[in-house]
Amino acid sequence: MTPTEELDLEVQRILQNRKYREMDIPESTVRDILEKALEETGKMKDARKQAKRKLHNIVAAYLGDPDYGKESNAISALFAGQPSPGQEKEYCRSILSTHASSRERLPYMDRFYPAIFSITGIPRVVQDLACALHPFSIPWMQLPVDIHYHAYDIHQPRVDLINQYFQARGLQPLAENRDVLIHPPDLICDVAFLFKELHRMEKRERGCSRQLCQQLHCRWLVVTLPATSLTGEHDLRTYHRQMVLDTVKGFPWKLVEAEVGNEMIFCLELHSETTVHNRIPML
Ligand SMILES: C[S@@+](CC[C@H](N)C(=O)[O-])C[C@H]1O[C@@H](n2cnc3c(N)ncnc32)[C@H](O)[C@@H]1O
Description:
- The protein contains 14 helices and 7 strands.
- It is of the alpha/beta class.
- A 7-stranded mixed sheet has the order 3-2-1-4-5-7-6, with helices on both faces.
- Bound molecules: S-adenosylmethionine (SAM).
């Protein structure tokens, strides 16, 4: 077997794993991780081990998941009537509570988005990178009715459920199954969110977030990182702040910091308004 055939076979083996088959993660993600692991270790056996460890961290099933079939029925039932804003929020709160990243944010949702948008301004085009279930937070964001909300994740059942929700509430189904590190969106937007994922991306490949920042066409990139560990035992502020400072080191980007609840917020102005708007006309 040639090295290429061996790699192809190993990629398919990993994709056939029941867990990854159900999530329908992109083949390009598995290939990228395996190829880089092979470059580093030089042996397929070691590369396989490393790739599996990295994938486990990337898909992070341990952070929680809803029952997608049940939630799909719940969305249909909710929007079969005309839910009041209160009823929609109640539903979204329940689904957000199924994933640790969004569950932790629930107590301070009312303060979180005003803190961000007071720095970036209210966006008309949003990109939610590595979104998980975060788009179900839209009812708290107070976005304009003509908002274009692009959401990206590598977990197909999440993407499908988000699109179902978007359509039910009259938004375009702009959620996509896309690995944003391999295929960064080339779309122009006002604000991109990268919430609670930069530190995990850096574990996949050191320096990748620095590269991502250079490839995005957004005016503001809002990165958030947890201020403490999941258990609340360890203060991570110094460590996570340094990670962001390393990411932006040497670039002329403006950085505005805030903190709400357990979340450190870093607003990076990657492009001035004029630069973004001069490149391609806004939608
Ligand atoms: C920790 S959760 C994100 C939490 C969410 N941003 C929030 O703050 O509520 C990680 C999510 O990122 C997705 N993900 C990981 N790497 C990705 C990548 N390179 N491109 C797109 N999605 C990715 C995973 O599938 C998972 O749904």
